[in-house]
Design brief:
single chain, YbaK protein, 3-stranded antiparallel sheet, alpha+beta, 5-stranded mixed sheet
């Protein structure tokens, strides 16, 4: 698959290889952050899922444990509870922008679970799976992907996880 600029596009190629039904939505890169995107394009935040790279504190002589988590925009990832326990570490935190770009090859605002390194675990909050269709990052800040949540489970390292996130308070 090729990108709009003519180069190989690993995200679109991965979607095609997996046979995931999807729609590519063009997006102004300045409006790629979730709240801005939803407001500008009329997307309900309950139908938008954020892809967040999370890292655990490694034990001596071990690699830093990582996972990509998908959570609805209306929810907050339970980093210090569910995610930390699944990583098997004493501490866990959101990966920074530089680490996210290095691991995923994507910038924040465009991170997607498609086209990632094959060994990276992908944990999808169960609430995402309850939606009819969800919008996720498209691999860059200039596009998003609209797809049925079942398409996410076609990813070899993906699994739906109960309690990975909690509904955000209304006053946030």
């Amino acid at each position: 698959m090729t990108s709009p600029t003519g180069g190989f596009d690993p995200v679109l190629a991965h979607l095609a290889d997996l046979g995931v039904d999807h729609e590519v939505m063009a997006c102004d890169p300045d409006l790629a952050d979730t709240a801005d995107f939803c407001a500008a394009y009329g997307i309900d935040p309950e139908d938008s899922a954020n892809a967040i790279l999370v890292a655990g504190k490694p034990r001596p002589d071990e690699d830093r444990p990582l996972a990509l988590c998908l959570v609805l925009a209306t929810h907050r990832l339970d980093v210090n509870g569910a995610v930390r326990k699944r990583l098997g570490t004493r501490k866990a935190s959101f990966a920074g922008a530089e680490e996210t770009a290095r691991i995923t090859g994507m910038v924040i605002g465009g991170v997607t679970p498609f086209g990632l390194p094959s060994q990276l675990p992908i944990w999808i909050d169960a609430a995402v799976m309850e939606r009819g269709r969800v919008v996720v990052g498209g691999g860059s800040r200039d596009r998003k992907l609209l797809l049925p949540p079942a398409g996410l489970l076609k990813l070899p390292t993906a699994e739906a996880v109960d309690g990975l996130a909690r509904p955000a308070p209304d006053d946030v």
